[in-house]
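Lay summary. Proteins are chains of building blocks that fold into shapes, and those shapes determine what they do. In this project we predict the shape from the chain. Here is one chain we studied, written as its sequence of building blocks.
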Amino acid sequence: MKTWVIGRGGLLGRSVEQILASLTQVFVPNQKFDWSDSSRAKSQLATECQSFISSVADDNWTIYWCAGRGTLNSTPDQMHEENVVFESFLQALESNLSVSAKQKGTIFFASSAGAVYGGSKNPPFTELTQPIPMTSYGDAKIHQEALLRDFATKHGIRVLVGRISNVYGARQDLAKNQGLISTICFSVLRRQPLNLFVPLETSRNYIYVEDAAKCIVAHAQKIAMTAKNSSFAVKLVVAQENLTIGSILNIAKSVLRTRPLVTVSTNKHGSSQPQSLIFKSVVDTELDNKSTTGFSVGMKKVMTDLQASFLASGWQRSN
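And here is the predicted shape, written in a compact code that computers can read:
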């Protein structure tokens, strides 16, 4: 099995690739993708698609798409650019795949549970819930999922969409203005107040990155080995419990041995997400990792990583 993780430099992609390294032959591109320049990213993807397919030969293959710069606050124009880049990737893949290679291929796509179910009704939300996005980011994810459904039908490739909740872990990109757990730890380490723009009663689902990666790889491998050609499946990649922001702050006080300084403000983007996003997977749950990382343990790992980063480089808001 040959595998390629697109977005291997990000929090999720890095963890997925680490797991795959002991299970498959991992393709490493010759260049680092410049996601800030859509024209260049399209050119780079086209080149590396050709290299990857050439390396596959007659083997089975899986591509894990874990890339993307978008967030819930991204503008329609920003998400349009992401759609264009993703469409160009599928076009490059299509132009390089032979008929026989298509029959041996699987694509995993990292979607966002919070984005696609933002306006959905009657939680807990499952794989069977009708997605109702409320942001440009959510619209883009649904659009990209639809492109993959058509791609699977047209070419016989197997597709697994992972609708993932809030992933957290060490070395999260704080510059994207997301990642509550990392931000809490960072604010405690810096002894600076944390500005929250949602009520403390807000409920969210947080999954540790290694748990998410293990779940993704397990389900993608099952699809690759057992699913029929042209199959399209959706899997929620979520933690077993949902937490309120208030309970997270209480856990932080216990784990970090200090009370985070918090201010709660009104956010102009606050209406884009409901107060409660509660998820529960009902598809292939026997494959889900039962030995998950406890939330307190995960937060401690994040803090330990930030402390090590501080000792190495000082007060820099970077990963």
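What the prediction tells us: The CA atoms of residues 205 and 241 lie 7 Å apart.
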